[in-house]
């Protein structure tokens, strides 16, 4: 079917006369009339009929006009979708996040993003460090927000560091080491409540023991989530090695206490991870921009605490 001729017919049907259609389309009336007659011949269907000094739609023309109106309305929707997709106002973002950013950072970031880009669909998977990078490498997600060490990233991963936080040893307030300074060897004699294998923080603790040539921690209780592990320590069982971002408020409220392990001061990196040499969709790029801005705002508040 000649879509150009159909568009001419649609304009005539919408305006009610050839003269107005000619003005809108900037095509001469004889040219429009000739193309419509050719179109009717191709279809073997009469679309227009004389009506006084003007024209009117035939019965077939009325039905064709309705179908054409639907078709070109869908065309406008497609144009609008493409425009929004190019500008990131539409699309689907798949995000993997490790437990720390998933629980303490991403909810605020996503809320801010959705206020600006409500139509963008999002699928967010919370998992451990190993699986987050695996999903990214296997093209299952578009980006990952990761908490761990920079040297853990594969060469095919592009990383952008957002900020760093300290890793703390924490215990319940009635623990014998609460607010005390101890050696790493003494600390490793205590029972630990930790996340599952594949957790970046757990691997950091094991690497710490190898570095200082001390016995591995006694991980006597294991959970697949941060909250459960922290609650067990607050309840009075064992110690935990965890991001300060997770437990800072618990320590400030006196529900947990730090243990100061001599010679140990480790940091955790929070980073955005994407695949190298692969452009982001507009929607994903918009999310990354908002995450960056949120990180910059947080740094500004730290530099000017009176603004909080």
Based on CA inertia axes, which overall geometry fits? rod-shaped
Radius of gyration: 32 Å
Number of strand elements: 12
Largest sheet: 8 strands, mixed
Find the structural class using helix and strand composition.
alpha/beta
The overall average pLDDT, rounded, is 88
Strand content: 15-25%
The unreliable regions are 299-308
Q: What is the ordering of alpha helices and beta strands?
A: HHHEEHEHHEHEEEHEHEHEHEEH
Q: Residue share in helices?
A: 40-55%
Q: In angstroms, what separates the terminal alpha carbons? A: 64 Å
The number of helical runs is 12
InterPro entries: LysR_HTH_N (IPR000847), LysR_subst-bd (IPR005119), WH-like_DNA-bd_sf (IPR036388), WH_DNA-bd_sf (IPR036390)
Pfam families: HTH_1, LysR_substrate
Organism: Paenibacillus ehimensis
Family: Belongs to the LysR transcriptional regulatory family.
Tell me about this structure.
The protein has 308 residues and is α/β, with parallel strands linked by helices. 48% of the residues lie in helices and 24% in strands. It has helices spanning 3-15, 18-25, 29-43, 59-86, 99-104, 106-116, 129-137, 184-187, 200-212, 226-234, 244-253, 282-303; strands at residues 48-51, 54-57, 92-98, 121-127, 143-148, 157-171, 181-182, 191-195, 218-223, 240-243, 257-261, 267-275. Strands 3, 4, 5, 6, 7, 10, 11 and 12 form an eight-stranded mixed beta sheet that branches. Helix 1 crosses helix 2, helix 1 (3-15) crosses helix 3 (29-43) and helix 1 (3-15) packs across helix 4. The radius of gyration is 32 Å and the shape is rod-shaped. Residues 299-308 have low confidence and may be disordered. Residues 1-58 form the HTH lysR-type domain.
């Amino acid at each position: 079917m000649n879509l150009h001729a159909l568009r001419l017919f649609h304009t005539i049907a919408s305006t009610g006369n050839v003269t107005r259609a000619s003005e809108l389309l900037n095509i001469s009336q004889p040219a429009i009339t000739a193309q419509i007659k050719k179109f009717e011949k191709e279809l073997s269907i009469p679309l227009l009929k004389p009506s006084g000094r003007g024209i009117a739609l035939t019965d077939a023309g009325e039905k064709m006009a309705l179908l054409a109106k639907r078709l070109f309305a869908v065309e406008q929707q497609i144009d609008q979708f493409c425009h929004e997709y190019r500008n990131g106002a539409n699309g689907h973002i798949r995000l993997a996040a490790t437990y720390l950013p998933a629980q303490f950072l991403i909810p605020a970031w996503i809320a801010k993003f959705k206020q600006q880009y409500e139509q963008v669909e999002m699928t967010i998977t919370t998992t451990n460090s190993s699986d987050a990078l695996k999903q990214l490498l296997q093209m299952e997600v578009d980006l990952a927000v990761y908490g761990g060490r920079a040297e853990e990233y594969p060469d095919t991963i592009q990383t952008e560091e957002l900020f760093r936080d300290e890793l703390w040893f924490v215990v319940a307030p009635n623990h014998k080491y609460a607010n005390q300074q101890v050696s790493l060897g003494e600390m490793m004699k205590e029972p630990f409540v930790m996340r599952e294998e594949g957790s970046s923080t757990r691997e950091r603790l094991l690497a710490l023991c190898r570095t200082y040539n001390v016995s591995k921690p006694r991980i006597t209780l294991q959970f697949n989530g941060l909250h459960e592990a922290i609650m067990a320590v607050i309840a009075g069982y064992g110690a935990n090695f965890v991001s300060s971002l997770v437990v800072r408020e618990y320590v400030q409220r006196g529900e947990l206490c730090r243990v100061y392990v001599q010679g140990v001061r480790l940091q955790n990196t929070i980073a955005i991870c994407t695949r190298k040499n692969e452009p982001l969709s507009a929607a994903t790029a918009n999310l990354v921009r908002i995450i960056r801005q949120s990180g910059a705002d947080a740094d500004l508040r730290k530099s000017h605490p009176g603004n909080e």
